[in-house]
Every structure is written in structure tokens, then in C-alpha cells.
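Supplementary Methods. Inverse-folding protocol.

Structures were first reduced to a C-alpha cell string of length 348. This string, shown here, constituted the complete conditioning input.
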């Protein structure tokens, strides 16, 4: 199969994105690689999102529009995109982001030649005027520190799964890959490694990249081929203000739990054991649990509705992961017992 024959699904999950949608769709249609479908999956928008998409679809048959019968939420709508996508490759484009015209062509080229399951490029950042300077500076600083270029080198290359697993073990909550708009992956990754984990809201994309890249080949293309736009109604800022407990405490807790127990993260557990010094994943999980429990215990100082939501989310996560209920009873006693046994053996 030649490059020009490779089918791509450009997936655009939408929800009330009318203010930004027009340039996003135009950036998809301007791709030099033309063999693609633009799959727009709307999750119950109440603005002009659907009508804007339909106007484009009338004149371009590559555009397919799907309207969800009920709200699926962020991760649920991403997964619906995966179910509906027909391409060999899946390329996400969010409703408020942009693809440079060579984006799909360059990513397919390196992905096809390298045999990689996952490809990520670099991106530029565009901030709307309503973004505070403090947030902008902190955002750019953290993105530069926790970047593929900083972790693995600023050159095009395949990143071995063991090397990526080592980074995940050391930095489990830092997305060094980037947002969905900078990533392309083969559709068969879904059959191999599953869907986006809808228990997560802030780290949902990072966990999926980590799951793929610690189990299969990953290609880093250090070319700026997309634009990530940050504005006051974006998901990251919304999560910081409206869903802080879930984003700041429960997401890391679920990540730490899966690193220790999920069959998809065997490579990470191996990397943690062989690191120097070793990475104690069990202790990291306990510390994450303790931080979440402390935040949960402080819920009563929140407004009643927020406190109720925090309690519901805490109980839901603990019911879905029964091991969490026993962390406070088992971690420190077992660690103390283990250290005491070693001390007694040395004395004898």
C-alpha cells in the first residue's frame, strides 16, 4: 500500500464549539494528504456547532457527521469517535485546534516507514486574551520541562517501549506527549490496548498514550505541525476550576493504581524495579491515596453541592478499585514488617 492509499480518519469530537469550529474544519480540509474522512461527532451541542458542520458537509463528501443520542461526556465522545472511525490511521483534531497543511502527510510518512503504532509531532501554542499571564508562563514552562524533546532528545526517532516505560515510572502524571491534536495512531491499537479510560478527565489522553507507548513502537517527529489553542472555556482550565478534586486527586490516584496492577503496565513495573534508585510504585500509590483522602476529608469546607459531588466521585472510584479501600490498613504495616524482618536477619 502506498502512502497516498493510506486512509485516515480525522476525528473531531464536538460540544458547543461554534466559536472556534470554522478554522478547525478548514485546517482539516486543507491537508495535502487528501485521502481522509473528517468525522465530526457531536455530543449534544446547543449552539451552532452542528449547523456549521452541516454547511461544510453539503459541499465536501469526506465530512461525516454523527449526533449522539445522549450526552456521553468528554471521554465517552472520544471513544465514540474510535468506534465510528473507518481509517487505518486515527488523527484527532479538537474543535478549537488547528492542523498545519502538511500534518497528516508528514505523520503518515514517518509512521508508515517506521512501522510505529503511535506518532506524535510538536505544536505551537496560541493563547486567547482572557488567559492570565501567570497561567500562560506556568503552562509554557511545564510543557517545555515535560516534553518529548527534553526527555528523549530533539530529533526524529523511534522511542523504545522500555525507555518510555522508564519515563512513565518516574513521571507518571506528566504528559510529555501532548494533546490529542498532536497524535496519530493506528486503528488496530484499540483492539490491542483498549479505549480511552473514561474514569479520567484531565489525564485521560496521557494515560492512553502511555498505555500504547509502553507496549508498542512510538515515533517522535519534532516538527511543529499543529496549533493548540488555550482559552478560558477550554477543558484544562474548566477542570482546574470546576472539577478540581477529580482532576487533581482522583486522576493521579487511578493512574498510580493502574501502574501497579494493570496488565498493560508490566513494562512500567519492570522499569521501576530496575531503576537506580528503584521506583516504589506501591508507596507512590499510597501517597496518592493519602492526598486524595485528605482532600476528601476537607470536603465540608466546600459549598454543599461541591461537597456532595466530591463524596460521590470518591465513593465511585473506591468501589471500582477495591484495593484502594485497604491501602491505609496494609501498606505501612507490611513495609514496617518487612524492614523489621530484614533488621532481625542481620542481627542474627
Amino acid at each position: 500500500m502506498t502512502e497516498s492509499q493510506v486512509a485516515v480518519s480525522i476525528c473531531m469530537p464536538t460540544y458547543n464549539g461554534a466559536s472556534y469550529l470554522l478554522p478547525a474544519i478548514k485546517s482539516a480540509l486543507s491537508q495535502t494528504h487528501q485521502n481522509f474522512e473528517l468525522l465530526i461527532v457531536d455530543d449534544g451541542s446547543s449552539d451552532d456547532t452542528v449547523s456549521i458542520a452541516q454547511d461544510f458537509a453539503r459541499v465536501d463528501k469526506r465530512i461525516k457527521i454523527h449526533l449522539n443520542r445522549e450526552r456521553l461526556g468528554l471521554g465517552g465522545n472520544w471513544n465514540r469517535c474510535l468506534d465510528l472511525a473507518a481509517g487505518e490511521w486515527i488523527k484527532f483534531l479538537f474543535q478549537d485546534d488547528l492542523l498545519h497543511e502538511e500534518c497528516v502527510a508528514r505523520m503518515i510518512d514517518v509512521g508508515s516507514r517506521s512501522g510505529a503504532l503511535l506518532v506524535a509531532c510538536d505544536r505551537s501554542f496560541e493563547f486567547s486574551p482572557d488567559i492570565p499571564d501567570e497561567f500562560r508562563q506556568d503552562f509554557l514552562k511545564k510543557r517545555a520541562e515535560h516534553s518529548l524533546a527534553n526527555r528523549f532528545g530533539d530529533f526524529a526517532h523511534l522511542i523504545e517501549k522500555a525507555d518510555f516505560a522508564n519515563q512513565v515510572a518516574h513521571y507518571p502524571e506528566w504528559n510529555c506527549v501532548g494533546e490529542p491534536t498532536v497524535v496519530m495512531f493506528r486503528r488496530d491499537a484499540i483492539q490491542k490496548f483498549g479505549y480511552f479510560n473514561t474514569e479520567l478527565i484531565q489525564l485521560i489522553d496521557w494515560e492512553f498514550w502511555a498505555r500504547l507507548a509502553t507496549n508498542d513502537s512510538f515515533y517522535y517527529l519534532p516538527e511543529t505541525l499543529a496549533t493548540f489553542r488555550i482559552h478560558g472555556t477550554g477543558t484544562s482550565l474548566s477542570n482546574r476550576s470546576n472539577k478540581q478534586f477529580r482532576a487533581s486527586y482522583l486522576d493521579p490516584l487511578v493512574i498510580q493504581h493502574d501502574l501497579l496492577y494493570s496488565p498493560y503496565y508490566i513494562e512500567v513495573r519492570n522499569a521501576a524495579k530496575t531503576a537506580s534508585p528503584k521506583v516504589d510504585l506501591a508507596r507512590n500509590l499510597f501517597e496518592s491515596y493519602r492526598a486524595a483522602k485528605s482532600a476528601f476529608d476537607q470536603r465540608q469546607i466546600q459549598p454543599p453541592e461541591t461537597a456532595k459531588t466530591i463524596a460521590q466521585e470518591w465513593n465511585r472510584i473506591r468501589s471500582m478499585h477495591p484495593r484502594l479501600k485497604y491501602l491505609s490498613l496494609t501498606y505501612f504495616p507490611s513495609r514496617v514488617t518487612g524492614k523489621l524482618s530484614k533488621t532481625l536477619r542481620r542481627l542474627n
